[in-house]
Amino acid sequence: MDDTEILAGALAFHGHRCWASTAGVRLGLAAMRALGVERAGAKELHAIVEIGDFHGGMCFGDGIQYTTGCTFGKGNIEKSREGKFAVTLFDKASARAVRVAYRPTVQPQIRATSFMQKRAAGVPASQIPDDEQMEVVHLVWDAPAEAVMAVGPIEARSWIEPEEIVRFAVCPGCGELVAEPYLRVAEGRLVCTACSGYPR
Q: Three-class SS of residue 82?
């Protein structure tokens, strides 16, 4: 698959076209190339994305997931919740890592687009015309690499995989399946967090 096919697949996966998911694709590809690795089929790679929660740029994470194969379902991606647009990609086999950060060089042009003006007014991205969505995609995709990203040095960094827990229990309170690490003791029974009454 060439880069434009990867971009098209990532945007389809994401559900709309935007600058942040496009940046995720570009930075994900750059990190993989810097390390000389292929997309993860299992857990060969681990990604730490610096985005946080509940902001309009979380789309960046979907671009990283689609491009690198590091997904929340496989457990080989995590958020550091710094609210920044950067990714550190680990290659477990070689014990190396690289951090790639987004450069906001084209943000003034992005902010001036009708897409971003509508988003700021509360219009959902999926309700903005395709040509307006693609305008912000092209601003990031067509910019020179040095204008939109900074690729850091390759560092010797190993990733120690946490133990995967594959044990589950049925909560006697609600009858739902819960992974064992999330069970809580309440009134002498092992129950899910919701049934325990404890804060999360």
A: coil
Six-digit token string for 89 = 């990609």
Of 179, 124, 151, the closest CA to residue 29 belongs to: 151
Q: What is the pLDDT of residues 44-94, one digit of tens each?
A: 999 999 999 988 889 999 999 999 999 999 999 999 999 999 999 999 999
How far apart are the C-alpha atoms of 71 and 40, rounded to whole Å?
Answer: 9
Tokens of 168: 């589950």
Distance CA 143, CA 154 (A): 24
Give the whole-angstrom CA distance, residue 32 versus residue 39.
8
Query: What is the pTM for the complete model shown?
Result: 0.89
Residue identified by tokens 């009134």 is: 187
- Residue 72 is encoded by which pair of tokens? 């929340």
196, 186 Cβ separation under 8 angstroms: yes
Does residue 89 sit in the same domain as residue 22? yes
Domain extent for 195: 165-200
**What is the number of domains present in the chain?**
2
